[in-house]
Amino acid sequence: MLDTVTDTAVALQGVRKVYGRGESAVIALDGVDLAFARGSFTAVMGPSGSGKSTFLNVAAGLDRPSAGAIMLGGVDLAGLSEKRLTVLRRERVGFVFQAFNLMPALTVAQNISLPLRLAGRRPDRAWMREVVERVGLSERLRHRPAQLSGGQQQRVAIARALVTRPEVLFADEPTGALDTHTSAEILALLREIVDRDGQTIVMVTHDPVAAEYADRSVHFEDGRVVA
Q: Of 27, 79, 152, 206, which has the fewest beta carbons less than 10 angstroms from its beta carbon?
């Protein structure tokens, strides 16, 4: 069993998420127990409505569970105020979504450093340069999102997620808006980040080809882990 402090980036214990009340209540998560080792790459799969997106939102601290515990780096998210939870997400969690969610008026460099500036922190120039080089954007720092391809925009989003040195990076269908060739490049980049940097990545995907880049797959059905 993994030690929740030293070996595990994220752990869920008996997590339930229920929307609504009474007869109209919908159980989105039904007693989920999962642990994600540090430096691992996990694909979360399942049909539409299976609970995988709800799982991501709850595990990442974007939504609170109805019951159960969520440990992120040894911290129980359930015990945090909204303010402390916001700070934890900003400093210890990275997000990459299907929609790149970049600020169109900002340059690539400004988009990448945005989480640090929102937190009132100065970017570590050496780390920023390393992240930019890792995702292949050194020649694009002064460009704006509209001047980039879809794959380049997703690379900006990945760099933005990494710049805070997050405990875990959650990716929600990160290649859903990309063509096959570009998807393969992005998935290879995520794989490299895990292998080279020891980053923990939890990726929700419907694509079995994308899941092959992960160390393991977790399958949801009707709010439960079935495989």
A: 79
At position 91, the amino acid (one-letter code) is E
Checking if the pLDDT of 16 tops 50, the result is yes
Task: Kindly report, residue by residue over 161-216, the tens digit of the pLDDT.
Answer: 999 999 999 999 999 989 999 999 999 999 999 999 999 999 999 999 999 999 99
Cβ atoms 182, 149 nearer than 8 A: yes
The class that CATH gives domain 8-225 is alpha beta
Give the integer Cα–Cα distance in Å for 100 and 178. Answer: 11
Where are the extended beta strands (E) located within 20-144?
Answer: 26-37, 41-45, 67-72, 75-76, 93-97
Residue among 189, 221, 182 at smallest CA distance from 203: 189
**Burial status of residue 12 (CB atoms within 10 A of its CB: 0-12, 13-18, 19 or more):** buried
Q: Taking Cα atoms as reference points, which of 130, 219, 211, 217 lies closest to residue 175?
A: 211
Sketch the domain layout of the chain as residue ranges: 8-225
Question: DSSP letter at 74?
Answer: T
Helix (H) or strand (E) run with residue 19 in it: strand 8-19
Which stretches within the chain are classed as H helix?
Answer: 52-59, 82-92, 108-118, 125-134, 150-162, 180-197, 208-211
Token pair of 57 as six digits? 């939102």
Nearest in space to 32 (alpha carbons), one of 226, 211, 217, 214:
226
pLDDT in tens, 95-138: 999 899 999 999 999 999 998 888 888 878 899 999 999 899 99
Please state, in angstroms and rounded to a whole number, the distance separating the CA atoms of residues 116 and 134.
19
Rounded to the nearest angstrom, the gap between the alpha carbon of residue 87 and the centroid of all alpha carbons in its chain is: 16
